[in-house]
Amino acid sequence: MLFIAYGRKNLILSKAEVKAKYTTPISHFLNWKGNEIHYTDDGTGFPVLMIHGFGGSSHDFVYLDSLMNNKFRIIRVDLPGFGLSDFPEIKEKNADYNKMYTEFFNYFLDTLHLDSMYAVGNSMGGMAAWDMAVEKPGRVKKLVLLNSAAYEMDKVIKVATEAFRFGWVEIF
Prior knowledge:
- By secondary structure, the chain is α/β, with parallel strands linked by helices.
- Helices cover 33% and strands 23% of the residues.
- It contains 6 helices and 6 strands; from the N terminus they run H-H-E-E-E-H-E-H-E-H-E-H.
């Protein structure tokens, strides 16, 4: 039995293999603090930013994108640390992930010149969209929350992200 487990083929894919397999014609990458961030940009019309939840990716909104991109510009982002986006190096023991994502979205919105948009967020992405609407009320014209995370998220985030600190959780 040990031989079978030991002799099993390595199923871990390199970043290059994953990018080759999951990058689409509407994929784009930008650099944020030395990290490669993936997003898709498709359709024409008023922009709609779609933000996935914890453990998800921009792929979570593929079907919704296909229903809307004939009337709207749909931007789906892989949050830093998810999907095809790199996880930023965190040196602080008690990092403020809300602050990190706020900084990211300030950069992201400025880089894509999104001065006015609708924001759609699911779960943790709902919290990020909510924070964005509070911080940038002139930019977020409408907010759609799907099963959104809510108040006291600093406590939830602390518990959920502690797993990243252990050696047995590896982020590619």
